Hints:
By secondary structure, the chain is of the alpha+beta class. The chain is built from seven helices and three strands, in the order ααααααβββα. 22% of the residues are buried. This is ISAs1 family transposase.
Amino acid sequence: MDLEKLMTHITIIPDYRQSWKVEHKLSDILLLTICAVISGAEGWEDIEDFGETHIDFLKQYGDFENGIPVHDTIARVVSCINPKKFHECFINWMRDCHTTDDNDIIAIDGKTLRRSYDKSRRRGAIHVISAFSTMNSRVLGQLKTDEKSNEITAIPDLLNMLDIKGKL
């Protein structure tokens, strides 16, 4: 993973916090969060622990002038970012990191996320389609669909977003 490219893409995500109250850069918090989750972190405390353990590595790409933020700060900041902007940032980063040749096969698959439904609010389960590079063993992108039956109509949108013209 090219984290320098990630840091470039993170700049599209606006920081809505009041600047005089900011102790940790948004780019540092997102770098920490992404690295921790890719490494298997499953919650805010895991992300904080990852940061404390890997601070020297993280400082190669971010400032972390005030150290690693506490888990409450990480959760609060991440919950305030625009999900569409984050998705755009992540997809663009994956596109920049994705090297391919004619032997790469892009697998498209739809999944229903377990326990994503909410009967009390009459919300159905979340359905997601993913594009996976078999050569790089990496998910290149995902799109949420409204219903499982909409997978077919969402696939062209996913392929256009990834710009993988000419791949099998």
